[in-house]
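Here we describe the complex-level prediction in full. Unlike the single-chain runs in Section 2.1, the four entities below were treated as one system.
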Amino acid sequence: MAQTKADLFQEDEVLCASYAKALSHPARVAILKVLAQRKSCVCGDIVDELPLAQATVSQHLKELKEVGLIQGTIDGPSVCYCINPEGLKKAQTLLQSLFQTAATCCC
Amino acid sequence: MAQTKADLFQEDEVLCASYAKALSHPARVAILKVLAQRKSCVCGDIVDELPLAQATVSQHLKELKEVGLIQGTIDGPSVCYCINPEGLKKAQTLLQSLFQTAATCCC
DNA sequence: TAGTTTAATCGTAAATCTACGATAGGCGAT
DNA sequence: ATCGCCTATCGTAGATTTACGATTAAACTA
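The structure predicted for the assembly as a whole is:
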């Protein structure tokens, strides 16, 4: 009974939560940082930077890709991952809006 | 084997992820909105606003409280929940910083 | 073509998350 | 003191997450 009752909440709340969920693991936060700092975005390099197995990193990359925060393009035998500026901006806007709203405290 | 290897990541990455995790469920996003919009922050009112059982809402409130995004003060028989400005600001700063960093795309 | 490299996927185990009914505990009122 | 209201906690079920070894698939190399 762990499935979220997503249809019972507002669309933007669900979207906001899904972006937050993508960032809810240190490895995925770290991946974004690596992608930003490194010139090369090859998958193997990301694996080298993280203390996780290749399969696990690939799984995290998939989650980031599915939510639209990153994108991967095939480059010969390897895959070049990169931040997706549109997805990032969307996430930033939504979360920023939430923080703005929440800043008006009631008490 | 689902425990996050938190000690293998940087401290701010873990912290950032924990804030994101707190926001990773539509119900918790909704709770923050309700707290911001409503004048009253009584727990019962929050339960009324959400399509979830009292026990479930209480659990979500606990998670938000534990990460420091909200605080609850006992008010007679009921509990007055309120956004914690400091926690909120901390979360905002950390996530904002992540977005800023990530904005420098490598490709 | 055979072999190597690279990354995704499969299968699996353990932990965590989500949800709720039931119960317990605190507080005010009668 | 007892009752009723409000909220937290317990116990539990089912789903999801996290992690990794093993395998697969694709592409380059010799």
